[in-house]
Design goal:
The protein is an alpha+beta fold. The protein is built from 9 helices and 18 strands.
């Protein structure tokens, strides 16, 4: 089972449950009531509470998966935590030292959220933007000061993420991290959330999950969750000690590698057994000071390095 948000019947956006063997069913048709998106559902129901009604639903409620167009699971997460340099290899790419004692984290605004297939606009202020595939953790139960041993109990599920960075801005000063990470379209997630219990059933050990950053169909970098400096459970526990975490909050756990992107590219987060998230890359608006086109010099065929 997976939980997502889809456009059905031409223009109706609603939360859906996806069953690979049967298709997709609108949560409202399954449970009664109205559910605008997946966030509305996960804040009210655990995955276990949805599994029973899904298994008992009549076949007439299901639509073929090919007829379902999935978008971002929800557009207004209360909190998005990003984790920097959580793989040693990625830290080496940036000539940085990976944090050894505590995770390096930052916050992103919900204005950055896009879903599968939506364009990533490159901001005119940057000449080097990178896309970073990451495993996202979706919080399902409120937690505060939880130990690492029980942190996974508070995770509703996992989801593919593409986290973008204006690397040239960040390189000028590490204090520019918030600005480098917060342009519109700099956080894509979807197409659907896989329940935490199913992840454990499928993989046995979450450390076996493999995350790959892909551009134009070519794998740029891949690694397993086991290679993280700080495990998903550690990240949940640590950040619950900073502030309360609430259902729908997202922790994006870090990337095995970032790839420079330019207009015409297709960036992809590929997580085997979880899903694949793809977004096309486009030029952003012109520099308002000059009105010039392609102000970042990143038109197709221009250097991105």
């Amino acid at each position: 089972m997976r939980l997502g948000t889809a456009t059905l019947d031409g223009d109706r956006t609603t939360a859906v449950l996806l069953d690979p063997g049967r298709g997709a069913v609108a949560v409202g048709e399954l449970l009664g009531g109205s559910f605008a998106d997946a966030g509305d559902v996960l804040r009210r129901f655990s995955a276990q509470e949805l599994a029973g009604p899904l298994a008992q639903a009549p076949d007439r409620l299901f639509r073929p998966l090919a007829d379902v167009r999935l978008g971002a699971p929800y557009r207004r997460p209360r909190m998005i935590w990003g984790i920097g340099l959580n793989y040693r290899e990625h830290a080496a790419d940036l000539s940085e030292t990976a944090p050894a004692e505590e995770p390096a984290s930052f916050i992103k605004g919900d204005h950055t959220v896009i879903g599968p297939g939506e364009p990533i606009p490159l901001p005119w202020q940057s000449r080097r933007v990178t896309a970073e595939a990451e495993l996202g953790l979706v919080i399902g139960r409120e937690c505060r000061n939880v130990p690492e041993s029980t942190a996974w109990d508070h995770v509703w599920g996992v989801v593919p993420v593409l986290d973008q960075t204006a690397e040239d801005i960040l390189a000028r000063n590490p204090r520019y991290l918030t600005r480098a990470k917060n342009f519109p379209g700099f956080f894509s997630f979807g197409p659907a959330i896989t329940p935490a219990a199913e992840v454990l059933d499928r993989f046995g050990d979450i450390g076996r999950i493999q995350v790959a950053t892909v551009c134009n169909g070519q794998v740029h970098r891949r690694n397993t969750v086991a290679a993280m400096m700080f495990s998903p459970a550690r990240l949940v526990s640590f950040h619950s000690q900073v502030m309360p975490l609430y259902p729908g909050d997202i922790i994006s756990t870090g990337t095995p590698g970032a790839v420079p992107i330019r207009p015409g590219d297709v960036a992809e987060c590929r997580i085997e057994g979880i899903g694949s998230l793809r977004n096309p890359v486009v030029a952003g608006g012109p520099d308002p000071a000059t009105g010039g086109g392609d102000p970042a010099g990143l038109a197709a065929g221009s250097p991105a390095e």
